[in-house]
Amino acid sequence: MTMDLNYPLKHAAAALTLLADHLPNDGSFKAAKELVLSMKGRVIVTGVGKSGHIGGKIAATLASTGTPAFFVHPTEALHGDLGMITPDDVVLAISHSGESKELAAVIAYCMRFDIPIIALTGKPESTLGRAAKAHLFTRVTEEACPLNLAPTTSTTVALALADTLAVALMQERGFAKENFAVFHPGGKLGAQLLTVRDIMLKDNIPLLSPSAPMADVLIALTQANLGCVGFIDNAGALVGIFTDGDLKRRLSPDLMQHTGADVMTASPRTIAADAFATQGVSQMQQDHVKGLWVVEEGRPIGLFRLDECLAKGVI
Q: What's the count of helices (H) and strands (E) in the chain, helices before strands?
């Protein structure tokens, strides 16, 4: 008999729906969260087989969202890696049956040194479940596998339940985008979380007095080769800018007779240093400009340009 190809998806969806219906009133989930929040050390994730693969991902998710964590394979634990687990830690042990014999040494070690265990299983009454101080109950009673043998629905729900714990911990800690960026500096994701301060040019930014003669303005514009110069008043506040585009638009026989004040664009577009770089790119695109002046209390501290955004992968 041919199985409906959608059956594994429908089976997992039903299991997740059941879990979601029970989770709001699950005191053990809340206990697991409190155990992690109160620990002084790290979450040590462990599991064997498919549960071990899930455990690696769970440890990575926790670590990248503000909860120090790493994965210890239970077999390696038998050969010295138990020393990685300290009384300040919490162990998150994954086993659908709760009877994985490879976890026995880890469970015994934790009980000996009073290290709290969070069990992620489908059987609270199992050996692992009884040893745990908190239990993440998947509520999965059978797999989507037609033989009811291969871990399918149980691993899907285990991963989703652990992700729910990670999100709950993020919320409790007030973990924000700025924190996320610290743990994800590489790749496109890291680039999306860079701030203007991370990208802006800070050195040798051309700044002149509005009274500067046009000859000085052109020299500064050419030497800096940044596409613009800024004008500041006696208090150091940015009052205007002059760009390569302005030069093309204002070319005339008497141009050299003017000062910066005569040619500058007053009230230039600016951005705060702590804004996300993506916000700055959006603003430049909306305003049809290639750069923004970065200011603090009205004073210029840098120049934020599309060129650097392209180089950093923000665009």
A: 15, 12
